[in-house]
Amino acid sequence: MEVLVKYESGFRFSATCRGYTVTTGRGEDGNEERDGMWPAQLFEASVGMCIGGYVVKFCKEQNIPYDNMTIELSRRTRGRPSRTTRIDAKIHLDAELSEGQKQGILQAADCCHITDSIKEGMQIACSLADAEADNVQE
């Protein structure tokens, strides 16, 4: 198991992986300080962080400053319930870039394994755990 998602309360869930925890959604306790990003925003953030990793790798190799890099993401949706149809990612770097460097950065951004998975038609397979096996483990 790589990630464990646990129901907290209301529409709040926590996801834990290798000792790190992220909380999404809104709980029933009314404590807005504990409210996290909605899952769609977390998905969007994951895409941006993945792109950022590939851009940093390219910038390191090309000696392009990246310390103040930011990536703005905006999600386009369609339908009810809404379906994400597009994510626009705008990469900001505090550096004068040649056309070749700009193209290299965009090519590096396209290597993100999350966006690549989506483009290739990623599948998600859900199943139910055996309740008896769950009770034995507790």
Q: Please state roughly what percent of the residues sit in beta strands, choosing from under 5%, 5-15%, 15-25%, 25-35%, 35-45% or over 45%.
A: 25-35%
Instruction: Please write the string of helix (H) and strand (E) elements.
Output: EEEHEEHHH
User: What's the CATH H-level superfamily name of the largest domain?
Assistant: K homology (KH) domain
Strand arrangement, largest sheet?
Answer: 1-2-3
**Total number of helices:** 4
Content-based structural category: alpha+beta
Number of separate domains: 2
Question: Mean pLDDT, nearest integer?
Answer: 90
How far do the termini sit from each other? 17 Å
The CATH class of the largest domain turns out to be Alpha Beta
CATH fold descriptor of the largest domain: GMP Synthetase, Chain A, domain 3
Number of strands: 5
How would you describe this protein?
It is a single chain. This protein has 138 residues and is of the alpha+beta class. The protein has two domains: 1-36; 38-127, GMP Synthetase, Chain A, domain 3 (2-Layer Sandwich). Helix content is 36%, strand content 26%. The strands form two sheets. The chain has a three-stranded antiparallel sheet, with no helix packed on it. It has a two-stranded antiparallel sheet with strand order 4-5. It is elongated, with a radius of gyration of 19 Å.
